C-alpha cells in the first residue's frame, strides 16, 4: 500500500509541478554550464546505492574545487540561478522522480551519503 501511495503521490506531484519544472530545466540548460541535473550517490534501503537527483546549482566538479563537499555562505561555486533554487528548495524537486521509481519514499528517512552511512 505504501509503495502504491508513493507512486501515485509522486506522479501527481510531478504532473502538477511540471509547469514550474520545465522553465527551470530550460533556464538551467541555457545558463551556467548547461547541466540540468546533479546526481549524488546515496545509500538507500538495505544499503543499496542509488543516484539522488537534484537540479544542478553549482559548477561541475565542485566537490573537487575550493571547500570540497561543504558549501559555505557566499560560495563562489554556486551559480547565480542556483542560489535561487537552493534558497527556495526548488533544487530538491527532482527527488520526486526518485520516489516514483522506488529509490525513496514520501515518508521515511532521507538517504545518507556513503561517507556518512559508513559511520553507522
Give a summary of the structure in a few sentences.
The chain has four helices and two strands, in the order H-E-E-H-H-H. The protein has 120 residues and is of the alpha+beta class.
Overview of the structural elements:
With 120 residues, the protein is α+β, with helices and mostly antiparallel strands. Strands 1-2 form a two-stranded antiparallel sheet. α1 runs antiparallel to α3. The two termini are 29 Å apart.
Layout of SSEs?
Layout: H1 2-30, E1 37-43, E2 49-55, H2 80-88, H3 95-101, H4 114-117
Antiparallel strand pairs: 1-2
Helix pairs in contact: 1-3
Descriptive tags:
120 residues; alpha+beta; two-stranded antiparallel ribbon; 41% helix
Number of helical elements: 4
Query: Percent of residues in helical segments?
Result: 40-55%
Would you list the SSEs in sequence order as H and E?
A: HEEHHH
Q: Mean pLDDT, as a whole number?
A: 86
Number of strands: 2
Amino acid at each position: 500500500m505504501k509503495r502504491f501511495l508513493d507512486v501515485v503521490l509522486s506522479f501527481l506531484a510531478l504532473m502538477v509541478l511540471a509547469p514550474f519544472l520545465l522553465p527551470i530545466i530550460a533556464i538551467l540548460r541555457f545558463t551556467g554550464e548547461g547541466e540540468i541535473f546533479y546526481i549524488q550517490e546515496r545509500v538507500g534501503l538495505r544499503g543499496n546505492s542509488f543516484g539522488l537527483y537534484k537540479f544542478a546549482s553549482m559548477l561541475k566538479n565542485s566537490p573537487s574545487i575550493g571547500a570540497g563537499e561543504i558549501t559555505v555562505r557566499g560560495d563562489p561555486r554556486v551559480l547565480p540561478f542556483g542560489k535561487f533554487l537552493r534558497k527556495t528548495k526548488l533544487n530538491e524537486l527532482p527527488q520526486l522522480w526518485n520516489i516514483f521509481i522506488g529509490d525513496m519514499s514520501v515518508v521515511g528517512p532521507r538517504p545518507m551519503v556513503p561517507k556518512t552511512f559508513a559511520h553507522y
